[in-house]
Write a structure and sequence with these properties.
There is one protein chain. The model has no long low-confidence stretch (mean pLDDT 80). β1, α2 and β2 form a beta-alpha-beta unit. The chain has a five-stranded mixed beta sheet. Strands 1-2 form a two-stranded parallel sheet. A two-stranded antiparallel ribbon has the order 3-5. The protein is α/β, with parallel strands linked by helices and 323 residues long. The longest helix has 70 residues.
């Protein structure tokens, strides 16, 4: 069987072919060692033992990697299943709480002169219902983010050829209310045509631009720029194979609260937050999802920031589908 023979260690033993040319030929033929006669039997036995041990460790490593891959797949599926299973009951709790809050409000309005005890009880009920609604809203956002995070890893990549400018125009339309509410100025320069999964690329820019609108200085008008620049390899991590396919590099830049640049890698971790969640709501999954989307396309997503002076996100993507 050629497949089995392919991994059999071969040791050449010769009494005549001592030249480098013959030695190189031996290694080129698949040898893992090349010995000259006379050979001590214990040396051959020792070498064979070493190679057998290496083979066993290689097989053990392959099995471990396979188990790790299966575990990762199971965890990704688990995340999606749990999120789906939680979504319906939380939605039901929210709806029932909203109905109960309305009923409590009607009861309060119907009472002409309730006693202080009754008034206090109604106020407590109203506060409790409000807290429950706020909690379920946060849970719903977390579930949506978890599903996005899982789909970024598991969704089938259906490649299409499109201009990123069109995707950005659609994202800005979706965010138009938030842009107006923040009195933000968003400028988008010319963008390249790429081959990618449009749904995931839209989600990528939706998250990045939503973050740029959210993490803003209250004292300054939000300024957000999206532009394409010559590929700066210094901001690509890990390095990409630029010989196989061409690359484009898109920058999302804002003048918001920024971050300490020593946390430029930490911000892409799932559930990582550098700011007080009471001040800025969110699940801490958005940037982790963005990185997964970019890496699934064979690209790189990195960031630079400065506290109080804004941030820049560098999206480096292949222009065409990688082989």
């Amino acid at each position: 069987n050629k497949d089995k023979a392919r991994i059999v260690p071969i040791i050449f033993v010769t009494a005549t072919s001592h030249t480098n040319e013959n030695i190189f030929k031996g290694y080129a033929s698949g040898a893992i060692d090349y010995l000259f006669k006379p050979v001590e039997p214990h040396i051959i036995k020792s070498k064979v033992g070493i190679f057998l041990e290496l083979y066993k460790k290689q097989k053990k490593l392959e099995l471990t990697l396979l188990q790790l891959d299966n575990t990762n797949r199971a965890l990704k599926n688990f995340t999606g299943i749990v999120a789906h299973d939680l979504k319906n009951p939380i939605t039901a709790i929210r709806l029932e709480t909203a109905v109960a809050k309305k009923i409590a409000s009607k009861i309060k309005d119907s009472l002409t002169s309730p006693s202080p005890e009754i008034q206090g009880l109604i106020d407590k009920m109203d506060t409790a219902f409000s807290h429950t609604l706020a909690t379920t809203d946060r849970m719903q956002r977390l579930i949506v983010d978890l599903l996005s995070y899982a789909s970024a890893d598991n969704a089938e990549l259906k490649y299409e050829t499109f201009n990123i400018k069109e995707t950005l125009d659609n994202v800005l339309q979706d965010l138009s209310a938030a842009i107006a509410a923040n009195n933000a100025v968003v400028t988008v320069a010319d963008m390249p045509v790429i081959q990618a999964a449009p749904t995931l690329i839209r989600q990528l820019f939706q998250n990045l631009l939503a973050n740029a609108l959210k993490f803003q200085n209250k004292e300054t008008q939000p300024q957000i720029q999206v532009f394409c620049q010559a590929v700066d390899h210094a901001v690509i991590h890990p390095p990409l194979n630029t010989q196989a396919v061409g690359l484009c590099q898109i920058v999302v830049k804002d003048n918001g609260i920024g971050f300490d640049n020593c946390h430029a890698e930490k911000i892409f971790g799932a559930f990582e937050r550098l700011v007080d969640k009471k001040q800025f709501e969110g699940s801490g999954i958005g940037l982790a999802t963005c990185r997964k989307i970019v890496e699934r396309h064979g690209g790189s997503l990195t960031a630079r920031g400065e506290l109080g002076a804004g941030s820049q996100f560098f999206i480096t993507l292949p222009l065409v589908k990688q082989p």
